[in-house]
Amino acid sequence: MSVGPRTNWRERGACRFEDPELFFPVGEGGLSLLQIEQARAVCRRCPVLHECRAWALRNREYDGVWGGMTAQERRAATVRGLGGRGR
Ligand code: SF4
């Protein structure tokens, strides 16, 4: 994803100095759970968590941890109607 006017929140993300691989576990179970929790810990201290989460939901980003949510959680939120495009 490129950083443009609508995504410049990324420049303030707490993950910008982290290994990007941390946010892309190979699954959502087993050993990946520890990795996911480590990624979430970074997200919890992130000043742009809400912008990031909204972007990922709006853009149907179904890979990796964004805004403290896993892909599975974002899919579920979308199904429940929490990821509408109009936000
Ligand atoms: S919420 Fe998480 S993934 Fe999103 S910018 Fe912040 S640290 Fe990165």
TrEMBL record:
<dbReference type="Pfam" id="PF02467">
    <property type="entry name" value="Whib"/>
</dbReference>
<keyword id="KW-0238">DNA-binding</keyword>
<dbReference type="InterPro" id="IPR034768">
    <property type="entry name" value="4FE4S_WBL"/>
</dbReference>
<keyword id="KW-0804">Transcription</keyword>
<comment type="function">
    <text>Acts as a transcriptional regulator. Probably redox-responsive. The apo- but not holo-form probably binds DNA.</text>
</comment>
<comment type="similarity">
    <text>Belongs to the WhiB family.</text>
</comment>
<keyword id="KW-0408">Iron</keyword>
<keyword id="KW-1015">Disulfide bond</keyword>
<feature type="binding site">
    <location>
        <position position="43"/>
    </location>
    <ligand>
        <name>[4Fe-4S] cluster</name>
    </ligand>
</feature>
<feature type="domain" description="4Fe-4S Wbl-type">
    <location>
        <begin position="14"/>
        <end position="76"/>
    </location>
</feature>
<feature type="binding site">
    <location>
        <position position="52"/>
    </location>
    <ligand>
        <name>[4Fe-4S] cluster</name>
    </ligand>
</feature>
<keyword id="KW-0411">Iron-sulfur</keyword>
<protein>
    <recommendedName>
        <fullName>Transcriptional regulator WhiB</fullName>
    </recommendedName>
</protein>
<keyword id="KW-0479">Metal-binding</keyword>
<feature type="binding site">
    <location>
        <position position="46"/>
    </location>
    <ligand>
        <name>[4Fe-4S] cluster</name>
    </ligand>
</feature>
<keyword id="KW-0963">Cytoplasm</keyword>
<dbReference type="InterPro" id="IPR003482">
    <property type="entry name" value="Whib"/>
</dbReference>
<feature type="binding site">
    <location>
        <position position="15"/>
    </location>
    <ligand>
        <name>[4Fe-4S] cluster</name>
    </ligand>
</feature>
<keyword id="KW-0004">4Fe-4S</keyword>
<keyword id="KW-0805">Transcription regulation</keyword>
